[in-house]
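Below sits the subject:
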Amino acid sequence: MGLAGENILWIGTSGQIEESLVPRANVRLETIAAGPIAGVPWRDKMVNTAKMTWSVRTANRIMAKFKPDVLFMTGGYVNVPVALAARVRRIPALIYLPDIEPGMAISQLSRLAEVVAATTESSKAFFPAGKVVVTGYPIREQLRQAVKIDREQALNKFDLRPSRRTLLVTGGSRGARSINRALMGILPRLLDTYQVIHLSGTLDWPEVLANAETLTDEQRKTYRPYPFLHQRMGAAFRSADLVLARAGASMLGECPAFGLPAILVPYPYAWRYQKVNAEYLVERGAALMLEDERLNDQLLPTLMDMVRDSDRLERMAVASRNLEIPDAEDRLARAIQGLALRGTK
């Protein structure tokens, strides 16, 4: 069973970023009206409930025309009307859980799915026996390819030296303000020891850029700030000896793929997801966890302790690598295809 672009239909939310990204990937896109119900004012809750009720009809019409063999979901409110339409039409569904612990959306949607694909074995505890297949965390092909390149070649892309420890700091496309500001506060001292690739995100980029101008010429030789990276993200991971980041689900796949130790700072307003993700890596020796509210006090001493203890860094790197599932993308694809074939019999 092929998965060529013409055999895939993406159903997204109108007015969101997928309207530009999905067609760029040569995948068909249909949009429906939807909105969050949990954690919003009562009026918005009523409006969005009406949107999703109406969108069940829209999703049903889309499926009647496209005639899918299987539905693949990744959580979120847009999936609700689509999942309900799929259930009415007896289309088998698989939902992917990237984090360790499911939130309310995936917990509810999993009831409408035949299979839950999960990043780790630990997620089995949250679902009925036999419903979970562990696939690992799928990462982009560009990152998979970067794992294979020579580290010195990767460092050359940033004009950095292999003789120094390299710290990669990332907070996602929008960034992590507390991490950005804690890092900026210690940069002059940190750059005496580390070289730093700093992905600030777009929101704090003007502040990060202005702060970089206050560094000496010598300090700027070992500091590489960017709002974000696209083509060179794999090279940034391959250059790193250590990652400082939030504890989003991607850390469960990207750090193990590159065998990288991590200092993780869970976002304090993300319910439990990030804390549970961080604890999973910490318990397996692949990461340390710092609390957001104590970051300013603890970041510099933690980083300096890490750079002085090469054996510890190496042990954490090995622990991280041992968590890798290198064929996660294939496992997830096979799970989807297997469910589709099962549904056509």
Q: What stands out?
A: Residues 42-66 form the longest helix (25 residues). The longest strand covers residues 165-170.
